Amino acid sequence: SQTIHQWPATLVQPVGSPLSLECTVEGTSNPNLYWYRQAAGRGLQLLFYSVGIGQISSEVPQNLSASRPQDRQFILSSKKLLLSDSGFYLCAWGGDFSNYGYTFGSGTRLTVV
Amino acid sequence: GQNIDQPTEMTATEGAIVQINCTYQTSGFNGLFWYQQHAGEAPTFLSYNVLDGLEEKGRFSSFLSRSKGYSYLLLKELQMKDSASYLCAVRENTNAGKSTFGDGTTLTVKP
Predict the structure, then answer these.
(1) Would you say residue B81 has pLDDT above 90?
(2) How many angstroms separate the CA atoms of A34 and B62, rounded?
């Protein structure tokens, strides 16, 4: 079965510091991978998606970047965090033509102070 | 692009039935999903509709009308543990399979 791991669970970072969130998937190959952010009381905003190694598409201009160095690894980064980067970050696997929607990682609660 | 609307909040009584509506506008449609999200947790998949009609899964059912851009999630025999946010999401018809999410409906089940 497929599993998705995301870490860390919680992060408090000062403004201007760097960020690296990692997501890995097991039990599947060449998955579509996604990074979403959720502001308090809101829905999920798609930040980046990747359909293969080294292939990154950005949905909205922002202070973040993503990379996919390996088939089952998806990384979200920032060189200098802003207060507005605070939120709940979710990595997801799926998005092919299956009937089961996304499988999400457990999420990272990022607070920029 | 996609535009999805759903009510912000709903309240219902334990044991009752509640219907959560979702309307959408899309430039390319490849399925509508409902997810459940408890506070502080990641969403989990509940249901999927790609053709018109009703899909039933235990206490949960979901309906889709593509011509009306409309879906609903029906929860029967409500339990306290059903208190959560319910997210409607539309998947686009591309290889990337991206989904756009509504802002979610927070359901509170009261005794």
Answers:
(1) yes
(2) 25
